[in-house]
Amino acid sequence: MTYSLVALTEAHLADMSVIEQACHHSPMSSATLASCFGHLYRVEGVMAEGQLLGFSIVQQVIDEVTLMDICVAPSAQGLGLGKRLLTSLVAQAKAFDAVVIMLEVRQSNLSAIGLYEKAGFVETSRRKGYYPTDDGHEDAILMDLVLS
Question: N-acetyltransferase domain spans which residues (predicted)?
């Protein structure tokens, strides 16, 4: 199967929302996803045979990029698509003269943490009890990738 990375538009919101709902314990609403199509944002998707399989959303303010979301449909996980999205957004951040990419991730999301660590992200701090869980709360791990 051939995968391609494409810039997404509001026309992709319904498909993005389905993936978002399937992947996250506390997913973004459709309205929040829609708000990510402003001039400070870059939204990219990975497609195969006309179907959206995953996406990333970054916000850039001057030289700082925040990874707002990276999400791959459960049926397409394990194919390296998250890595492709991450590699692309890092390259774009460099092209737009960013000096750092920041993100936060649930402490239980070990696959995402592994992906970020392999890409060079390092933990900078934690937000204790930030994310709700079914039986309480868990920490948010804050990670940065310094671009040189």
Answer: 3-148
